[in-house]
Amino acid sequence: MSQVSKIRMNYREAAIRGYIPEGVENRLTMMTILEAGIQAFHRGYFKDLLDLNIDKSREQRISNREGWDMALAAQDAMLEDISGVRWMHRQTETLTTSDFALALAYTRDAAQKPGYAPFESELLKAARTRDVANFKPIKARGATNLLHRFLALRPEATNVLYTGFIGQGEVYSVANYELAIAYTWEMFVNDEIGDFVDAMEELGEAAARTRAWSVIDAVARMAPRLPLLNGELGPTVENIQAVQADMAEQQIDGRTVSRTVTDLYLPTVWGPLARVVLGSQALAYTGGGATVSANPPMNPVYQAATAHNEPIMSEIFVQGPEGNPRYNNPAAGYADLSARDWVALDRNARGLEIAYLDGFRSGPKTYTKIPDTVELNQGSFENHTYAVKVGDVHGATVADKSAVRIVQGV
Question: Which domain of life is it from (predicted)?
Fold first, then answer.
């Protein structure tokens, strides 16, 4: 007997015994399959965080069922997109209880905290976040320049000095990113629940990569390039010093602006070198024989910055997501980017920004399509398809170009 048939048989027996209403067993069967896919999606997106909260929800339910019910009822705002899944559990609450809904609410709540990012990106963690109510253009925060950089000294009995400001912020907007996976009639006949669940987990990983892409895409399009003579050698002592000097002495609108390099975001190839360079307190001799020379005994960039692996950055710099036509387009700012380019950032300046449509900061949403058909084994009336759609709404920008560099070789 197929796995689908077993699920339906259990619901059918429950209906005969009066535990659930007659006529809902087909719909509940499909909802059970789709819930497995939805849970796999969020496990792919949140990774261990979701599993930890499933354990937390289970322990809370076992030890204090009344408190568990109250906690679940209080989390309605976090769970609007899985109302169909919750309907299923209300229908079958005498048979089974799922810890997934409350676990997802706890997980989404944790994901709203500053500094959280899916597993794919360290650069995403450095971006300041904000929520917006619609798709209208947004002006990046922190991009309004006062005419005075410091408060003015006011002598006794004199009038206060009024300053002015010039808005120079980048304008950007959020956009809707979606993909759907179908559970088809053919998959039903072939009993391919496992394949569907695996695909949904991969879709969760793709959603995490998309949020990382949003920030890296903004850096690729907007961040100033810093070509270095020996840039192809990566984050060496000399190259890190060159980046420090470039960011420490900048002229912006006639003002001197000084930034500190606090973080390096690196493709995988440069991670080991950066950790050695930044973590070595003393420098070694170079050369050999008559050409031997001693570097300064102390490493001038020792612990000067924190190195982060950003594994998908090189992919995005070179080709970007599949089907995106903007990559390597000079007009879009992608020309001449390399898989070995790396990013230097002054995290304290908060130069990166990502915005989410209200309700999406905590993560992508899932939506289910359950056609109104009685004949379960025939799928949807129109095209034999049930489906889960995933949607996420966000957009990113470089709010302060003085705080970020793409470091390149020449």
Answer: Bacteria
